[in-house]
């Protein structure tokens, strides 16, 4: 199973939209089972973006994970019309306070063991123990930013933290969203500022 995470230290840059489209694109390109997890523990919107309803959520699954075998765990996922299986964010804001980093890591491990496809996680814009537990268990980290100075500064700081933590920076793919730059020269300037190549731009 290939584990993909979508994150930005700056909110409102398009992480959820990118995570949803990435999950659908991976399923269409590979034909392999793809799971999309909404790990924005307080303000997750994946279910709204996909127009789905579910009786289960990340919060409820974590609370009973030890009692779920793989069959029951798989039944907690809701299948979108695209074929992507989804685990929505917790229903209530206070549920985030009950979820520990180790519990979240165990859930992601269990879900990754369900199949041989992809597990895409839409993360929230915070750097804490839960965030780091998600980052520890990933193969690719898609970091989303926009051309705004504040968004670029936050990404630069985030990359500095990862470097201090000895994180494997080769896992990181930078995506520049809402890209209205006038040309390649300006893009090169941004790459030089961030110290990393930009893997993809999105208009």
Give the overall shape: globular
In angstroms, what separates the terminal alpha carbons? 30 Å
Low-confidence stretches: none
CA radius of gyration is 17 Å
- Portion of residues within helices: 25-40%
Main β-sheet description: 8 strands, mixed
How many E-type strands? 8
The string of secondary-structure elements, in order, is EHEHHHEEHEHEHEHE
Helix and strand content put the structural class at alpha/beta
How much β-strand is present in the residues?
15-25%
Strand order of the largest sheet: 3-4-2-5-1-6-7-8
Q: pLDDT average, as an integer? A: 92
Seen as an oligomer or otherwise, the chain set is single chain
Query: How many alpha or pi helices?
Result: 8
Secondary structure blueprint with pairings:
Layout: E1 2-7, H1 15-30, E2 34-39, H2 46-50, H3 58-63, H4 70-75, E3 78-79, E4 85-87, H5 101-112, E5 118-123, H6 129-136, E6 140-145, H7 149-164, E7 172-176, H8 184-194, E8 198-201
Parallel strand pairs: 1-5, 1-6, 2-4, 2-5, 6-7, 7-8
Antiparallel strand pairs: 3-4
Structure write-up:
The protein has 203 residues and is an alpha/beta fold. It is 39% helix and 19% strand. It has helices at 15-30, 46-50, 58-63, 70-75, 101-112, 129-136, 149-164, 184-194; strands spanning 2-7, 34-39, 78-79, 85-87, 118-123, 140-145, 172-176, 198-201. The protein has an eight-stranded mixed sheet, with helices on both faces. The protein is globular. It starts with a strand and ends with a strand.
